[in-house]
Amino acid sequence: MTIDIWSDVACPYCYIGKRHLEAALSLFPNKEEVKINWRSFELDPQAIAKSEVDLYDLLANKYRIPRQQAQQMTASVEQMGSKAGIDFNFSQVVSVNTFNAHRLIHLAAEQGLQNQAKEALLKAYFIDGKDLSDLSVLQRIAADISLDEETVATCLQSDAFAQEVREDEQLAYQIGVQGVPFFVFDQKYALRGAQPVEAFVQTLEAILGEKNVAVEASGDACDVTGCD
Fold first, then answer.
1. Which of 124, 112, 99 is nearest to 8 (CA)?
2. Burial classification of residue 117, based on how many CB atoms lie within 10 Å of its CB (0-12 exposed, 13-18 middle, 19 or more buried)
3. Long-range contact set of residues 175-178: C-beta below 8 Å, sequence gap at least 24
């Protein structure tokens, strides 16, 4: 079984959705036969390399709301993340353009370390408050998952894997992906958003038994206009 997942490392629901899928796979008897492909989706392709304001001011400016209300917006996401074992640290998030992070994930895929790279980048962004616009930070993250430092440096200092990122995004556009995370199972069934664990279990079991899937098609997700 193949699961293609469109997501962005700056999407909190993508982190939660990853945890929910992992929990479902832990209950799946054929989990060793499941291959996951992380596909690129930038929530804000035009974002500057690094924002000069923190996440709360960024949200306040985007939605034209008071900073306090922007802080409240993240509270429910924090609660959902906590239930999934994620300690979101939104006050320390450094908002950046994620294009280079996506390129790094594609490089890691060539070494069989794509899932490790995705996890490391999500943690770095949402928990550790790392600046993912800093190439030296990306190189250290890559080294921590055993990617060759020289290879990573060469990649990040070039336009390597830029085409692969754009191809993922073009494919997302073609199949109608408007929010992430977006999961496609065996190119047959699609689930949008951080679905509950039970929805993933039901989908996996349905595919295993070649049955029709009857779960909610949409859950909490982020798109180019924000997160819902």
1. 99
2. buried
3. 177/6, 177/41, 178/223
Residue-wise pLDDT tens digits, 179-189: 999 999 999 88
Give me the CATH number covering residue 213: 3.40.30.10
User: For residues 28 and 22, is the Cβ–Cβ distance under 8 A?
Assistant: no
For residue 154 the two structure tokens come to 């060469």
DSSP letter assigned to residue 91: G
Per the structure, the complete domain to which residue 26 belongs is given by 2-227
Per-residue pLDDT tens digits for 113-169: 999 999 999 999 999 999 999 999 999 999 999 999 899 999 999 999 999 999 999
Compute the distance between CA of residue 193 and CA of residue 209 in angstroms, rounded to an integer: 24
Q: Which two tokens stand for residue 71?
A: 């802080």
pLDDT at 27: 95
**How many domains are contained in the chain?**
1
Amino acid at 98: T
Can you give the pTM of this predicted structure?
Answer: 0.92
